[in-house]
TrEMBL record:
InterPro entries, alphabetized: EF-hand_SWAP70_N (IPR057836), PH-like_dom_sf (IPR011993), PH_domain (IPR001849), PH_SWAP70 (IPR057837)
Coiled-coil annotated residue ranges, if any: 283-504
GO MF, one example: DNA binding
Pfam annotation, one family: PH
Oligomer status and interactors: The SWAP complex consists of NPM1, NCL, PARP1 and SWAP70.
Role noted for this protein: Phosphatidylinositol 3,4,5-trisphosphate-dependent guanine nucleotide exchange factor (GEF) which, independently of RAS, transduces signals from tyrosine kinase receptors to RAC. It also mediates signaling of membrane ruffling. Regulates the actin cytoskeleton as an effector or adapter protein in response to agonist stimulated phosphatidylinositol (3,4)-bisphosphate production and cell protrusion.
UniProt keyword terms in alphabetical order: Cell membrane, Cell projection, Coiled coil, Cytoplasm, DNA-binding, Membrane, Nucleus, Phosphoprotein
Residue ranges constituting the PH domain according to the UniProt record: 177-273
Protein name per the record: Switch-associated protein 70
Cross-referenced PANTHER family: SWAP-70 RECOMBINASE, SWITCH-ASSOCIATED PROTEIN 70
CC per GO annotation: cytoplasm; lamellipodium; nucleus; plasma membrane
Subcellular location(s) per record: Cell membrane; Cell projection, Lamellipodium; Cytoplasm; Nucleus
SMART domains, sorted: PH
Length: 553
């Protein structure tokens, strides 16, 4: 019956043959929990696809265990609320068997319930409870958690209905993934009428029902990363409007007030952002972070315990080493005491022996002092002789120094004389060189003087010739000037004659010249007006006059 019911709830096909085959050889009595688990894992749980109603599955499991384990004492919560607390426990408990809920998760759950009831959180009260809990165990089992919530220890002053509503709200959020729910008006797509619906927002869908009992479902709004939500202005008498845009359809919704409108817009936008980022719902992500933090703290605590154990082991080893050293020191102290005793005995013997040797030494010392006194007198005489020899040695040293200094002075004088002789011979050679140079210079001066005299004579003769040529040129210049004056006078006379003759000819030809059509070339201007001939004609006439004049001359 259990296997058949599990297969029905989990949507897995039931195989009675496999069940009979698995337990065929087990005829000794009832099947134990350990005996049933292999069959459950192999033939039922491994075939689960995830397309089953988790609430119904939890309710079946609750039916199997509640009657045996639920407390018989009266509680402030109903069996249905106890079931919801049981499901919440399974969600928040640690992933190890037997299942327990740690104090951090208990605090998280109680805070959520307190906020849902609208009461203030009593941190000091929970701290006292946490201290008493930590002294006895690591956490609570599910039945102890139900007793804690049902006892009303953290919900004093709240009635059963308020506590039940708080449990239901937390159950919807943590188990059913309900992020927000409430009544709003929805505009129809066909008839365009406005109808009140109960909306339930989940991580990837918004479902709307006729009422909050969730029995009559009217439709779904599938959410994905492409959806968006935006506020709309008031229209058609409806206020607090907003629009949900999806790929295939858009939905116009009206909230009861502006606060509800803003809360719904923010909740839907947050859900869409989580879908875009591929993040889990906030409560699951927060649970994962709390779990990771606990694991990190546990690892740190285990590491600290390991280090403490290592330190304790090292301390014990050090204690053992110290005990060994102490024993060694005691043995060494005993040996040292024995050696000290032997040393004292040896010291007494040595003192006696030293006393005898000291007496003998005194006698030897007296003899030595007498010998020393005698030797001292001899030494004094010897030292006097040594001082006399030292004085003689000093005198000999001074004589040697004087002789050495005299030799050095003599050597210095000799070197000075040699240097003076060398300088004198160098100066004599230089004087002889200068004398030869002077004689050579005198000879060269005589030759140059004779040559200059010859050149002077040549230049005087050339000068006389040049003077004669200059006088001749002066005479020729005077003759040329006289000829120039004569030619100049002839030219002036000829010019005057030519001018008077040109005037006569011009006057004569100007009177008898016929008037002809003017040339296109520019005309000359005379004292009497425009000329009767052109410039080219004038040049031609001048050439003919010059030719005639040359012929006449």
């Amino acid at each position: 019956v259990l296997s058949h019911n599990l297969c029905t709830v989990l949507n897995v096909p039931h195989d009675p043959v496999a069940l009979e085959e698995h337990f065929r050889d087990d005829d000794e009595g009832p099947v134990s929990n350990q005996g049933y688990m292999p069959y459950l894992n192999k033939f039922i749980l491994e075939k689960v696809q995830g397309n089953f109603d988790k609430v119904e599955f939890n309710r079946m499991c609750w039916t199997l265990c509640a009657k045996k384990n639920l407390s018989k004492s009266p509680l402030l919560i109903s069996d249905e609320d106890a079931f919801k607390v049981w499901v919440i426990f399974n969600f928040l408990s640690e992933d190890k068997y037997p299942l327990i809920i740690v104090p951090e998760e208990i605090e998280y759950l109680l805070k959520k319930l307190t906020e849902a009831m609208g009461a203030g959180w009593q941190q000091e009260q929970f701290d006292h409870y946490k201290i008493s809990l930590n002294t006895s165990r690591e956490g609570l089992s599910v039945w102890e958690l139900i007793d804690l919530i049902g006892s009303g220890q953290f919900s004093k002053g709240m009635d059963r209905q308020t506590v039940s509503m708080a449990i239901n709200e937390v159950f919807n959020e943590l188990i059913l993934d309900v992020l927000k729910q409430g009544y709003m008006l929805k505009k129809g797509h066909k008839r365009k009428n406005w109808t009140e619906r109960w909306f339930v927002l989940k991580p990837n869908i918004i479902s709307y029902y006729v009422s909050e009992d969730l029995k009559d479902k009217k439709g779904d709004i599938i959410l994905d990363g492409n959806c968006c939500v935006e506020a709309l202005p008031d229209k058609d008498g409806k206020k607090c409007l907003f629009l949900i845009k999806c790929l295939d359809k858009s939905f116009e919704i009206s909230a009861s007030d502006k606060k509800k409108k803003q809360e719904w817009i923010q909740a839907i936008q947050t859900t869409v952002n989580l879908l875009r980022a591929g993040s889990p719902p906030p409560h699951k992500e927060a649970r994962q972070k709390r779990k990771e933090l606990r694991q990190k703290l546990l690892a740190e605590q285990e590491e600290l315990e390991r280090q403490m154990k290592e330190l304790q082991t090292a301390n014990e080893n050090k204690q053992k080493e110290l005990e060994t050293v102490r024993k060694q020191l005691e043995a060494a102290a005993a040996r040292a005491a024995e050696e000290e005793k032997k040393r004292l005995q040896t010291q007494v013997e040595l003192q006696d022996r030293f006393s005898l040797e000291l007496e003998r030494e005194k006698m030897v010392r007296q003899k030595m002092e007498e010998q020393v006194a005698q030797k001292s007198s001899e030494l004094e005489q010897y030292l006097q002789r040594v001082r006399e020899l030292e004085e003689m040695y000093k005198q000999l040293q001074e004589a040697l120094e004087d002789e050495k200094q005299a030799r050095q002075d003599e050597e210095t004088v000799r070197k000075l004389q040699a240097r003076l002789l060398e300088e004198e011979s160098a100066k004599r050679a230089e004087l002889e060189k200068w004398h030869l140079q002077q004689q050579q210079t005198i000879q060269m001066t005589e030759a140059e003087k004779q040559e200059l005299e010859n050149q002077r004579m040549i230049k005087e003769r050339a000068l006389q010739v040049a003077m004669q040529q200059l006088e001749q040129l002066e005479l020729e210049r005077k003759e040329a000037l006289e000829q120039y004056e004569e030619v100049k006078k002839k030219l002036e006379t000829a010019a005057n004659n030519t001018k008077s003759w040109k005037d006569k000819v011009a006057h004569h030809e100007g009177l008898i010249r016929l008037i002809e059509p003017g040339s296109k070339n520019p005309h000359l201007i005379t004292n009497w007006g425009p000329a009767a001939f052109t410039e080219a004609e004038l040049e031609q006439r001048q050439k003919s006059w010059k030719g005639k004049k040359a012929t006449s001359e």
